[in-house]
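Why DUF3800 domain-containing protein? Reviewers of the renewal asked for a concrete example.
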Amino acid sequence: MTRAAAGRVLEIACDESGSEGEKLIGGNTAVFAHASLRLTENLAAECIREVRRRAPSPSLEYKSDIIRRSKHRAALMWLLGPSSPLDGNAHVFLIDKAFHVVGRVIDLLPDLGPQQRRAMAVDLYREGRSRFGGERWTAFLESFNDLMRTRNGRGPGVSVDAVFDLVDTLRVSDAGGRAGEIMDLLWQARARMAPFRTRLLDGPTTIPALDTLIPAIVRAVAYWGEGVRPVFVVHDQQTLLNDERIARLLSASPRTLSGIRLVDSRLDARIQVADLLAGAARQIAENELNGRGDEELTALLRPYVDASSIWVPAGAGVLRGRAER
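Here is what the prediction returned.
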């Protein structure tokens, strides 16, 4: 699908790792990673050949799970390092799925500016588990995740009343604390939840609240186009990118998005390289979230990571010191 664009078009190749639709809590992955790159097909094919040489595999299609194996660490370090063709030619957008859900919950609160919403989301995210306990915190995230999913017109698997009964319990349990204060504000905004659900179930015309893929593509186009240059996206085939969602993507993206084409990764080496980068980025970032961060790999990944990723910077994490393009 395309639309008119002026000027010389830049073609980028993209793939993702960790996409589970709108199920962000309780799935198989805690992080969504989207990789985009500007490489010629010949250079991408050379990159895949070099990776195969450094980390051999009999697989016909070389996937990211191969290079992520500990025995192939040296190959992964080469791929992310300064001698790789990715250096200066690749971009990664990360989403901490739990933080994304928290941000959408905070969006229910009225009369807050963007900076206030961000600060409040960070506070709740950082304090929620320790103040409420792991089990209740996870239940809170799962319940709001369920309420906010579009489910193709079907109702949620949990009632608004049940969710806000939990909010009531949490606000009382941390009365006087910052997390409890935010829960109290959320409790007061309870009336906003029903209209929000109605908008979702009536068939949304905008991007679903918990979508990860479309915002990532939008950011990739903005990053590479720098607001002026037309960008054409070649993306790995993805069931979430149906005609309806592509139409939404075109309406939500900067005018610099000139079009999008879905391709079979087996037929385009650029998509295979994007898969390697996305898979590696997701695992490195997920290990960091789980307290098993690898400083060496994190340092190599950091230059690729978009500063506007949906992520809470901490310590020497993947976003520390990362500059906007």
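The chain is about 50% helix and 10% strand. This is the kind of structural detail the renewal will allow us to pursue systematically.
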